[in-house]
Amino acid sequence: MNRESDPAPRSFARRAALLPRRGIAVWLVPGAVALGALSGLMYGVVKAPQYAATSYVIIVPADRTDPGTALGYAQAYGRVAIDVAVRADAAKDAGVAPDLLRSNVQAATSPDAPMISLTAQAASPESATAMADSVAQALVRTSTDTQAKTGVKVLSFSSATEPSAPSSPSAGVAALVGGCAGGLLGGLTLLVRPRRTEEDGYAAVPAPASASATAPQKEPV
Fold this sequence. Notes:
Shape: elongated
Distance between the termini: 35 Å
Number of strands: 4
């Protein structure tokens, strides 16, 4: 019997070569989860906590002005609130740079009410509260100067309350989010990677049932 033609040793060698690949596939998702959780934990520990404070202003119509006009001006003021506040020295009042005020204060409007919410984020509760209130007061002062032209005025509806807890996620939450993201990426990588076989390293496509081999028959002489 010719040992070189025996497929058993070669089949065993191919299967042995595939073991490391299968081992990597088994540990891919758990490893990605652990790496993501560790990255999220480090991010939560290193990043400074952020505090958020929100101030509200309301737009009211002046005498002989259509009440529906206030809603339209609320949308307009909401779009330019930060620029108006910077020009009105709101950054100076809050004790921060104008660029910091632009990047850390967000204005939001409601489609149903002539109200604007001004949310500021900062590394300290005092700074977040000061920025939100300074933008609100800047809008109030600006509307007073332009009331004769616009027919509406901005009033302070609610001052910002100093936050007692950071709005940014804690280290535990960041680790949980990082672990979920790592598991998702690991699972997607496992799904899209090419599947291996012993013969040529890729997934074999099964032949259709109708294409099964049959023994050739001899034609009659």
